[in-house]
Write a structure and sequence with these properties.
Helices cover 27% and strands 21% of the residues. With 417 residues, the protein is of the alpha+beta class. 43% of the residues are buried.
């Protein structure tokens, strides 16, 4: 499953009732934490069989005045810790000073906690350090997971490179590949004609379409889906942002790959993810975070073994419902993401038939084009800002932290991009 970032503004009615602990220091960070970090578990369900783990970080600017943001890393099954350490949190790995099995942390100058209070939630159950007290409680779906977090959503929402209709989103990889010169004009035109615009549910008797798709696969199969300009490293991981972890990685000294000189290997983003497995599975780290001993045998950045049913195959109807409310929405796409191409996201936004308030136009950070945005509205009470992040990949804040920080800061402040 592709990685999905779905952060939302929220108010939490029962947040103070959760079991929690204040964390003042963490292994790998050389001094006391210069921000307030709280971790804990939220019991969900009538018998609280589901225990969702969270990290709460207080805004470094004005906690009482700044918004409260709930961050859900998608997948489903990718830990909120991934969003905290690689995208928008106040800590990140210091690769230049880390070595072997000793990750070092440093402060992130573009953390969104500089302007917002953030709860990073491990959801659905089985993700990160979240767990259940019964086997049946591990059975989950789109609707049951949404029900567990529905009470949190109040004021507005932010979507980053979101899966909306998986079939259509994946189909958009072909026109996106054509737009970015990964697929030739001739092949694109033949595929479009022969497959009638459907590149996923293909009639097995349509030989021409199948032949075209084989040629498309040859063009795209060696491209890193999350960011088309970065190398794909099958040595550690297949073509996505997930990494299959086992302690044998340390035993086989594969971690030494991270410390090798750049000139002797292609740099790959997946190497960075190794440190999160080492750090989060360290017993000292789990004690510092107050993880309940014995509840999770191993932390996974993305748990691909979830008992999870995709029972919402197209969420556009929900966006159409939200467009009738008084919410604000910010939707962004890294424009170099082949996994969930921006053209598919823009297509379903246009299908909402909202009122266009301004033209497609560039927005800037430090005098440079950071992306392109467009603003929609509905009955003057709902507004939707859509923007691209120039050069961004699937998890855009990971690739373009300064630009994404500026984007969300302006949106929080009602300042147009």
């Amino acid at each position: 499953m592709l990685h999905l970032v779905l952060p939302c503004l929220l108010l939490i009615s029962n947040f103070v009732q959760s079991q929690s602990a204040i964390i003042e220091s963490l292994p790998g960070f050389p001094e006391d934490l210069p921000f307030k970090l709280e971790t804990g578990y939220v019991g969900v369900g009538e018998l609280e069989e589901v225990q969702l783990f969270y990290y709460f970080i207080e805004s470094e600017r004005s906690p009482k005045d700044d918004p409260l943001l709930l961050w859900l890393t998608g997948g489903p099954g990718c830990s909120a810790l991934s969003g905290l350490l690689y995208e928008i949190g106040p800590l990140q790995f210091d690769y230049s000073n880390s070595s072997g099995n000793r990750p070092v942390l440093k402060l992130n100058p573009y953390s969104w906690t500089k302007i917002a209070n953030i709860i990073f939630l491990d959801a659905p159950v089985g993700t990160g350090f979240s767990y259940a007290t019964t086997w049946t409680a591990y059975d989950n779906s789109d609707t049951s997971s949404a029900a567990q977090t529905y009470e949190f959503l109040r004021k507005g929402y932010v979507l980053g490179n979101p899966v909306t209709c998986e079939v259509k989103d994946i189909s958009q990889r072909i026109p996106y590949g054509h737009k970015t010169a990964l697929i030739s004009d001739e092949l694109y035109e033949a595929t479009t004609t022969d497959c009638n615009g459907d590149y996923v549910n293909v009639d097995p008797t349509n030989g021409a379409c199948l032949t075209d798709l084989e040629m498309v696969s040859l063009c795209l199969e060696k491209i890193y889906l999350a960011q088309i300009l970065e190398p794909m490293c099958s040595f550690l991981s297949p073509n996505h942002t997930k990494l299959k972890w086992s302690r044998s990685i340390l035993e086989e000294n594969i971690i030494n790959v991270v410390s090798m000189p750049l000139q002797s290997r292609p740099w790959c983003r997946n190497y960075n993810y190794l440190y999160s497995y080492i750090w989060a599975n360290d017993r000292n780290v789990q004690e510092a975070l107050h993880i309940r001993e014995g509840t999770k045998p191993e932390w996974d950045r993305c748990n691909e073994s979830l008992s999870y049913t995709k029972d919402v195959l197209n969420s556009v109807v929900y966006h159409r419902y939200l467009s009738k409310t008084s919410l604000r929405a910010l939707i962004y796409s890294g424009d170099h993401d082949l996994a969930i191409p921006y053209i598919g996201t823009l297509d379903w936004i246009r299908s909402l038939n909202l009122t266009l308030l301004g033209p497609w136009a560039p927005w800037f950070v430090n005098g440079q084009v950071a992306g392109y945005s467009i603003l929609y509205s509905e009955n003057n009470k709902y507004d939707l800002t859509y923007t691209t992040i120039k050069g961004g990949g699937h998890t855009a804040p990971e690739y373009k932290p300064k630009e994404c920080f500026s984007m969300v800061d302006r949106w929080f402040s009602y300042y147009p991009l």
